[in-house]
Amino acid sequence: MNLLSISWKNIQHKPTSVILSLVLFALGVGLVAFLLQVDRQVQQKFENNLAGVDLVVGAKGSPLQLILSSMYHIDAPTGNISLEQARPFLNPQHPLVDLAVPLSLGDSFKGYRIVGTTRDILELYDIQMSDEKLWQKDFEVTAGAEVAKKLKLSVGDVFQSSHGFTEDIHSHDEQLEIVGILNPTNTVLDQLLLTTPATFWKLHNHGENLPEGDDRAGHDHKDGNHVGHDHHDHDHDHGDAGNDSETMLSSSSNAYLLQQEDSLSITSLLLTFKGRNFQALNLGRNINENTDMQAASPAIEINRLFSLMDTGTRALNALALAIIFVSGLSIFLAMLNKLRDRKLELAYMRVKGASRTQVFMLIIFEGLIIAFLGSLLGFLLSYGGIYLLSTSMEANYNYSLSAGSFSMAELYLFFGALVMGALAAILPAIQASKTDISITLEGN
Amino acid sequence: MLEASHLKYKYTSGVTLSFPSIEVTSGDSLLILGNSGSGKTTFLQLLAGIRKPTQGQIVFDGISLDSMSASTLDKFRGRNIGIVFQQPYFIDALTVEENMMASCYFSSMKRDDQRGVQLLDRLNIRQKAKSSPRQLSVGEQQRVGIALALINQPKLILADEPTSALDDNNAQAVLNLLREEADRLGSALIIVTHDKRLKDNIEQTITL
What we know:
Oligomer: heterodimer
Largest sheet of chain A: 6 strands, mixed, barrel
Distance between the termini of chain A: 30 Å
Structural class of chain A: alpha+beta
Largest interface: A-B, 28 and 36 residues
Shape of chain B: globular
Shape of chain A: elongated
Order of helices and strands of chain B: EEEEHEEHEHHHEHEE
Helix content of chain A: 40-55%
Strand content of chain B: 15-25%
Strand order of the largest sheet of chain A: 3-4-8-5-7-6
Number of strands of chain B: 10
Strand content of chain A: 5-15%
């Protein structure tokens, strides 16, 4: 038997008087915890995926949209640019550009985006992978870890992509084949299907205007829907076909793209600079002013997005803090109310030898227990909220959040809530400690 | 063991009451009779150290209550003085058993579960140990009140009107219980009451 257990029994004895305080506390703490988590995780996702890209070049339109579609794969692309326009950046001789990664967007498979790009994209995200798992020829696909897991894809599987980002509006006839699956990278690559830019041209032009070389799409997979089969023999066929230009110059490289016709198009380019000198910093403005393309800096656009989100987050935070304050007030009022009924009981404890400090602490503990339980409930609520949000985000954007990460901010929130509970109990506790013990023997 | 000499108490209203000097030793029983308004309750509060006398002093086992700090006096009272109230008090959220534990806890006494069980046994409420005291009958509550007063084996038992709400049979039973337990512990027993029925049962009587 100690003060804490007596406080706990007191709360259990009359639970109705604390339910309101508990619920308010849970709502307030839950909302703050939820916002903390979402804010942190969304920022993390965005920042993880910045990948050192200095500039994104694409068709004119909203710069934020260009960044969102090309780097985060959550919005529609702004349009396409021609290979002619992109050519200067793809040239390894470009004085400012270190790495140029072309992207072709617009197709998907079961809601996951297919990206036509070169292997350089792996360098952007610092991913090491053995060559045989990577897309090399057209219609070869390397799947991100998350897609592969969700769609249960394995090496050798073939599938038909759909035009657009929603499921099964219009499927292309040609088959794509999974040649490898990336290890989890915790970046946007996890949810992408990577293939060559030329695959997009072949899917969309149906034979006209095609670059020479890979004719695999035409003849290979006549036997339709055999997802999961072993395609070992096909690989063999290709080796025998002996298409020299293709093996020498993989269509998943910039050098290959440089040889193709000007009229072919890609969606955008992700650029990193050799150095952040004045000229490099001016490159974006030059593109915007002097070409039909636009250039956008991911860091700037994402900061803009964060500051937009920040306004909303701050408003919600203020609301949540107000709720926590009101819950503290409700603890205060409930205790003050209860004190009147408990006067004799407290005086009796004093007669039994309890000191003023002990009576004081008894009431403080009650405030702390309510705050503790309320916070606990709040954190559970926030995890529930994160789970729901994550589920809906995954359905809409293929991004997910993880419930259960606990940072310093949550720790502060937790202790802040406890302090609030103790503060709310201080005045009632002082009053309780002043209980006149002589009343136990009076009024009989 | 307890010596109260020349006690006077001045109320905030200005009225001053004087109380007779008393002296009790271990095993003694003393009945203090008085009508309403005679200051019985005040006398009891002075003896229990709940109020400070304006004059005179109380010496308990050679120590003056006056000389103790407030918190020392709180613990001292919890350990050495058991008070039986006219209407028993409990910590309502706790069971009978837990209330007894709380008594030990607040007075910093070592808990002795066996003694508690034996006490409840003698008071014939052992089967109520796990009950909430407010759910018991009035008679049972009174006996729980006695158990709570005695659990710390006090040297002095102060009883405030323990029988005034009871009929003759029950009044006699409660009185017997108090005397038996006081004898068993070798404690001094002081009963403050206006109930003249008790007069024949206790040798020493003071009338206020």
